[in-house]
Amino acid sequence: MPTYLSKDKFAELQQELETRRSVTRREIAGRIEAAKELGDLSENFEYHEAKDQQALNETRIVDLEGMIKDAVLVEQKSGGEIGLGSSFVAEAGGTRKAFEIVGSNEADPLAGKISNESPIGQAFMGRGTGDVVEISVPSGVMRYTILEVR
């Protein structure tokens, strides 16, 4: 399954992967060795904590490798209709808000980055300036007017 990423997010994931493979692995290996020197491993909290951290790090490395391998880089779109990579401004109830349609791995609703897979993201996809988008929310229906597609 493709992982839709901006160039910035792709570079961020590559950097995290490199750091985890080199720096983090070495740090954890050092903690494991230091804990081994403390003696009995069966009740050695430091050893077990370091081994847990090692497992978490290795799991994240595998996850990152998968995301990077399956990455589809999304170019930032400008103007026209809203699609993956688009930034736009919409207004609801007199409040303007800037949004960007991103892949699910980059979604951060509080920062206005909405996933193309989310109901809100899907509602905006294919729409353009001047369109009215209605989105069902628990409290009723939100009505957004698209003011600008960047």
TrEMBL record:
Residues 4-72 form the Transcription elongation factor GreA/GreB N-terminal domain. Pfam families: GreA_GreB, GreA_GreB_N. InterPro entries: GreA/GreB_C_sf, Tscrpt_elong_fac_GreA/B, Tscrpt_elong_fac_GreA/B_C, Tscrpt_elong_fac_GreA/B_fam, Tscrpt_elong_fac_GreA/B_N, Tscrpt_elong_fac_GreA/B_N_sf. Coiled coil: none annotated. Keywords: DNA-binding, Transcription, Transcription regulation. Residues 81-149 form the Transcription elongation factor GreA/GreB C-terminal domain. It comes from the Bacteria. The keyword Lyase does not apply. SUPFAM superfamilies: FKBP-like (SSF54534), GreA transcript cleavage protein, N-terminal domain (SSF46557). GO terms for molecular function: DNA binding; RNA polymerase binding. GO terms for biological process: DNA-templated transcription elongation; regulation of DNA-templated transcription elongation. Belongs to the GreA/GreB family. NCBIfam families: PRK00226.1-4 (NF001263). Necessary for efficient RNA polymerase transcription elongation past template-encoded arresting sites. The arresting sites in DNA have the property of trapping a certain fraction of elongating RNA polymerases that pass through, resulting in locked ternary complexes. Cleavage of the nascent transcript by cleavage factors such as GreA or GreB allows the resumption of elongation from the new 3'terminus. GreA releases sequences of 2 to 3 nucleotides. PANTHER family: TRANSCRIPTION ELONGATION FACTOR GREA. This is Transcription elongation factor GreA.
